[in-house]
Design the sequence.
């Protein structure tokens, strides 16, 4: 049984690359819903239905464990999938999100108790990061900023336009005095080098591709009954729901090497 990763588009390839690099023995199946990206401007019900169809596809194709690499899906669909969908349809399978690990990392990095989040409009409106941070430490102040243009920049290989857009997005957070910036979307690690250079080490930049592998390894140590079911042949396959002319090149940039993409259809 494989580890599945589901994302609204190609951004989750960054997390997948980190997992393959740090936990290379496992078998991975990636599914990016490129036909319907982005999810950040969708209603909660639509995000749930899209996410459920992706999770179901991965389960039907041999995944024991699915990680929702998409923060919007984690914010707006994960809890319902865990509480309603899994018990009825796949009680022995597991679906994990990226918000709780992100909240844990934010708290671990902040010194002044002020954390900034940049994320999609859907993730920001859900207040999910604020809830998860405050569950762990109610004294932390969390400031959010929706950054809806960043996903289209990534998916269309338009990084040249990122400089002024990023500046506008982080300015309100800097004004609030945050000392930690969480990149609350799996597409956003593509901008981490630029942000770290811009912030000159004064603000910690928390990027999911850097901590998700460690968090997953810890989860599997704590859940040997899941780990024992996972196959370990070192294979990885990449599926998308649409192959636009730029998709392969964007995937290469995100993953850091050429990969083979297969187009599939979700019901």
Sequence:
């Amino acid at each position: 049984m494989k580890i599945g990763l589901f994302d609204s588009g190609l951004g989750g390839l960054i997390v997948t690359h980190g997992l393959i690099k740090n936990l290379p023995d496992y078998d991975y199946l990636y599914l990016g819903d490129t036909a319907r990206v982005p999810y950040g401007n969708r209603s909660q019900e639509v995000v749930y239905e899209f996410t459920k169809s992706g999770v179901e596809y991965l389960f039907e194709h041999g995944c024991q464990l699915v990680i929702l690499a998409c923060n919007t899906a984690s914010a707006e669909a994960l809890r319902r999938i865990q509480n309603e969908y899994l018990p009825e349809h796949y009680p022995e399978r597991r679906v994990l999100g990226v918000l709780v690990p992100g909240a844990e990392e934010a708290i671990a990095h902040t010194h002044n108790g002020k954390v900034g989040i940049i994320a999609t409009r859907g993730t920001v409106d859900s207040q999910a990061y604020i809830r998860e941070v405050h569950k762990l430490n109610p004294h932390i102040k969390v400031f959010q900023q929706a950054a809806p243009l960043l996903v289209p920049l990534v998916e269309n290989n338009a990084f040249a336009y990122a400089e002024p857009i990023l500046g506008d997005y982080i300015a309100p957070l800097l004004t609030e005095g945050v000392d930690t910036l969480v990149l609350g979307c799996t597409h956003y690690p593509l901008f981490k080098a630029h942000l770290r250079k811009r912030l000159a080490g004064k603000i910690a930049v928390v990027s999911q591709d850097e901590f998700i592998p460690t968090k997953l390894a810890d989860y599997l140590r704590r859940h040997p009954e899941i780990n024992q079911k996972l196959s370990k042949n070192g294979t990885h396959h990449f599926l998308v729901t649409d192959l636009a002319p730029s998709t392969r090149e964007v995937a290469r940039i995100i993953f850091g090497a050429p990969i083979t993409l297969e187009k599939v259809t979700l019901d």
